[in-house]
Amino acid sequence: MNECTADKLNNIAATLSLGARVKFYDEDALKVVCSVAPYARIAALFMKETFYACGKGFTERLKNAGIKPINFIMPENATLNLENVFDLIGVPDGVRAVVCFDRRLVDISAYLATIFKVPVITVLRTVETEGVLPAKVPFYLGGGADFFPVDCAYHVVLPDITQNNTSGVAEQYISIMSNITALSDYRARLAVYGGKPEKAAYDVIKTAVLDAFSEPDEEALLLSGLKIETANLASDGAIIYNSADYCFRRLAGFNISGGVRLALLDKLLGLYLLCAEELNDVFQTPDYNKRVQELSGLTKSDDGEFLKGFIKQIEKIKRCKKTDSVKTSFKKEFTAQKAALKIIKEKYLSLGGTLCDNFSPYIKALKCCGDLPNVFNFMTILRESGFAERL
Asked: 177-203 pLDDT, tens per residue?
């Protein structure tokens, strides 16, 4: 690991006005915990395999340093839901920090930290960074997911990639490349909805994607991914959480493979380009009632909010009165991105990625990823242009 990596990221955080909330470290995790919460009681979250791989030893080191760890060994697929949340917030008063050793547990850690008004210390053990700095976390209620805005400080201990103990390089690469459509989706939203753009965060994400595309080695991918996470937090998720890619994952389940992400990127870019090129009458009027039923089935949530969401989107499009010009303004961009997909696929496979051999279980999520309330992406334009009814 280049010793300047943490400095670069801390500079980005400062530029995005997050210097007081986000800090990165190129040093031993024990030193970071002792600095953030000296001689204090902390809550330490582990998956079972992580606890036995490194958690037991780290717990002893914490105790020897005067820290009082309270360990929580989380079950597989742990999520924030009404069945387990009261167990999770049974953490005793007086904890000074939440320490997380698994990226899968960052959401729960951020929620706990917000409740107890303490910082999260995340010890990264992989180059995969997606979701490391959440602005909000999914909170599962009866099968569907609502989102809880988190408000805590983040301390991120970077992995030592020189030790060859990292994993997920291909997954990290495709998660970064998936932001190609997020950037377009965000600009499409601004063109229709208006509003003040998150220019600084947008520029950081765009640069990070281009850097990862041109130099996709482990360190560059780690750096780009954490830049994107920082920018996402700085914008309160305005760019990434609005994207068709993120909405697709909300509907299909967040824990999907990189092969599915690559297939999704291919399909989105193909559909986006088709929509930008074709300005004739719609092929088929959207069936909103059917879409509400599909959304309710995917999320196991009430359909009332989805109907309200459709009404708001349609009203914005009618007021805009320039949907065709919005579509054509992206034509050149989508053409170049679609052409670059071949390079992305080749690099993803060279990094050890595997292809998705059956996308059919995800068709409904693809069809509806522009339909969720409080979002507007190019899939929303695609729906209103009649293209998505054929999916």
From this structure: 999 999 999 999 999 999 999 999 999
Handedness of CA 20, 115, 125, 174 (dihedral sign): negative
Q: Is the pLDDT assigned to residue 328 strictly greater than 60? A: yes
CA 157 to CA 100: how far, in whole Å? Answer: 10
pLDDT digits (tens, 9 = 90+) for 35-90: 999 999 999 999 888 898 888 999 999 999 999 999 988 777 666 564 566 566 67
Nearest of 333, 193, 319 to residue 275 by alpha carbon: 333
- pLDDT of the residue at 82: 46
The tokens of 365 are what?
């999520």
- Give 390's contacts (C-beta < 8 A, 6+ positions apart): 283, 284
- For the chain, list the strands marked E by DSSP: 22-25, 41-47, 68-74, 95-100, 120-123, 136-141, 144-149, 154-157
Token couple for 331: 């034509």
Kindly give the pairing relationship between strand 120-123 and strand 95-100.
parallel
Residue 166 backbone dihedrals phi, psi, to 5 degrees:
-95, 165
